[in-house]
């Protein structure tokens, strides 16, 4: 028996991967993820300084990434650092930009 190439009864398996790709589908969010791949962890102030865009904009993008499970936070006193939470994201970004562009 052969497995059909397309199966309308099996569409649910695509929901979570599609949500992950949606979370990555903005230039600023891709930049944030690649930056976290290079730096490993980072706070919003550092991102704002590097990207030269309003802190509120960065925070909104980080919230979308966090909601999708792409990033998580690590608190040290008052400082909140963001780190990647889903290793699949690294593979996706490396496929898009190349391995050497994603390393520090």
From TrEMBL:
InterPro entries, per database record = ArsR-like_HTH, HTH_ArsR_DNA-bd_dom, Metal_resp_trans_reg, WH-like_DNA-bd_sf, WH_DNA-bd_sf
Superkingdom, taxonomy of origin: Bacteria
Claim: Transcription regulation is one of the keywords in the record: yes
Q: Where is the HTH arsR-type domain?
A: 11-104
Keywords in alphabetical order:
DNA-binding, Transcription, Transcription regulation
Any Pfam family hit: HTH_20
Q: Give yes or no: UniProt keyword Transcription regulation.
A: yes
The protein's name? Transcriptional regulator
Write down the species.
Saccharibacillus endophyticus
């Amino acid at each position: 028996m052969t497995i059909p190439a397309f199966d309308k009864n099996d569409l649910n398996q695509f929901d979570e991967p599609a949500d992950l790709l949606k979370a990555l589908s903005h230039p600023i969010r891709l930049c944030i993820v690649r930056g976290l791949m290079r730096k490993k962890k980072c706070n919003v102030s550092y991102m704002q300084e590097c990207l030269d865009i309003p802190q509120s904009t960065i925070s909104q993008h980080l919230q979308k990434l966090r909601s999708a499970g792409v990033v998580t936070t690590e608190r040290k006193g008052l400082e909140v650092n963001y780190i990647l939470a889903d290793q699949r994201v690294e593979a996706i970004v490396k496929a898009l930009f190349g391995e050497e562009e994603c390393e520090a």
